[in-house]
Description:
This protein has five helices and eleven strands, in the order αββββααββααβββββ. By secondary structure, it is α+β, with helices and mostly antiparallel strands. It has one domain. Strands 1, 2, 4, 5, 8, 9, 10 and 11 form an eight-stranded mixed β-sheet that branches. A three-stranded antiparallel β-sheet has the order 3-7-6. A hairpin with a 3-residue loop joins strand 1 and strand 2.
Amino acid sequence: MALTSSPVRGPEFAERVLRAEEIVRKAEETDWDFEATPEIFAKESQADVIAKEIAIVHDGHRQTIIGNLVIAGIGSRFNLMGPVQPDSEFKIKPTSLLSDLARQLGEGDVTAFLNRTAYDKPVEVDFHNYTNFYTLRDLVFWHLVQGSGCFPTALEHMKRHFALGKVVQNNVYETPFVGRDRAKPVVMQARCMSVAHNTRVVEWMDKPLFGGLEQDTFHVEYLLTPGRSRLSHPYLTLADEARVEYGGIRWHVRKFTGATPKEGLRGPAIPPESGSS
């Protein structure tokens, strides 16, 4: 989702906070009815994860997800949010794991995918201003203060995760290159995002939510386990498997690839979500 080009300060920011509080209070009273509170509707879809490369490292007790994301957007300042377990540890941590896996199991999957598209080479961006949302109110309030908004499908998606006892983790990222229109969005790459939590079972990531630019996401996903695994992926095809060393431990790796439709896609006869002008 695109944010305003730069955050406001001083009295203007205080006024924005008060206005956001008024809108959120009204939205709560109407049970988040977008027609009753059109102010919470994002004006335009403007960002999409177009490719992702992740490794899920699971030792039988704890799972760590390490990922690189390729994102296309219109604008220059954006946010990315997703559900995580409340005891998760989120880090931006340099690691050679993904590049090591690519060298051993075949390099260039994401690069080859991007070369088949009309997108430019991605520019590197960093995640910052990490925020956890614990309620739907937190989430909507933050987006209003930041000069953005929400879409009904995204709000419903996050509402389900709150009900399951998860929190929604959010990151801001920026680029000096401004995407001007859907035909020429700015393409960004965010590397080395790491999320870890305790779990005895492998917990696969959700598909990215549709942001209005690209209906599919290209995936390269690795599953690392201490012993040999026969786990299948819920929506990707097994492409390879091998033994590798990581962190002084020998791991069994299963590599899955494929393109999948995003969550929250509209039907063929239904126009994209859009707010009141």
